[in-house]
Amino acid sequence: MGTYELTWIHDPARGGAPPDPPAGWNLQPLGPDVALEQLPGSECHVVVLDCPIPGWAPETLLEEILRAAPSVPVLLRDPAATPSAAVRLARLGIHQILSPGEDPYPALAAAVEEQRSAALLRLAGHIEDTPWDRFLVGGSRPMRQVSQIIRLVGARRATVLITGETGTGKELAARALHLAGGRGAGPLIAVNCGALPETLLESELFGHVRGAFTGAWQSRPGRFEQANGGTIFLDEIGELPLELQSKLLRVLQEREVQRLGGNETIRLDVRVVAATNCDLAARVEDGGFREDLYYRLNVVPLRMPPLRERTGDVALLARHFVEKICRAEGLPLKRLSPEAGERLAAYSWPGNVRQLENAIESAVALSDGRELLVPSDFPVLAEPRPRAVAAAVPLIPVPDTGLDYERTLAGIEKSILEQALRKTGGNKKAAADMLGLKRTTLSAKVRSLAFG
User: Fold this and answer.
1) What predicted TM-score, i.e. pTM, was given to this entire model?
2) Contact at 8 Å (CB) between 231 and 178?
């Protein structure tokens, strides 16, 4: 490899410089605010977080770094780090904690090479030869976290709730969960709760006996029975009607089902995986979803990251889809030009991985007999980006007695930020994009407005 790009985040006022780098390292020591501005889209290979830094808790700064550069390994150097703090940081995604007085550069080089090897192995489909891993393409930190959760809970019966935007691959994650444990040999039954009429959904899920309703000429097992010994995947669970939510809750609690119109109780051994692209917690608050069912489903939460949070995976995904589509069409293998790869990586992909796959399929068709895919083969890259819809400005009445101008503005600003953070599940980068702000600007506003 050429040069390692290292960002060393420290307190410039504390004194002391980072250790002199050996040959092959390009060291950039920065304060936290400047680093968080520069990391998105940079060529940085590894980050060192050198604490303490006044005004920043290590956990908070780590979260900001991982949002700015989700695929870059972060190592911590903090003489005050306790074992309990190390555990918290490991759960948040710290790559390694450096020992006091340790030469950091061997550990930094190892972290970079480990990251590169994992990405290459994943692309080649050789990671631990696990059959479920083929559904998860990408070596970015968010996707490694998804893989780790699937690896940990795949063999368990615990219910998993997969959340994420449309097109992020929630069904693929459900298939990976099914194959990751002993249930892989059993059936995987998928039900789209938003695609079936309410009148048919109960029979579809739980089955019916003969004569249960007009047209029920014979008994029929439901999807839960069909999934016995395997996994049932309940997609768009947020669309399930309230009446059926109570019946689903009983099935999850008792692990048994009764067919519609019948009295027989049928015991089940079924792993339940549910998915939604809506905010179920908000649905609970507005009365559209049962709170007890929400907690019963959300035993193991699994969030599928949008593609904008894993831009380092775009090239891997694009190559994967090119190979997949060429094989399916019986075509000689095509490849992306460097310019096309750069343009694809820079695009925002509001439709996420599904949109990228559709774009690749279109490009393969438009390229005709050419081996090389160029930017002009991707109509999506020529589409103008939609402008943000201007928000309606509320009329704030000014009483004759006057008002506190600064406090009123702060209240409005806080309300806007809270709404954006709630809609994005607390993801500051996504909330900042939604509001047309820089992520660091949004973070500073959150701190200044004393969010609870």
Assistant:
1) 0.59
2) yes
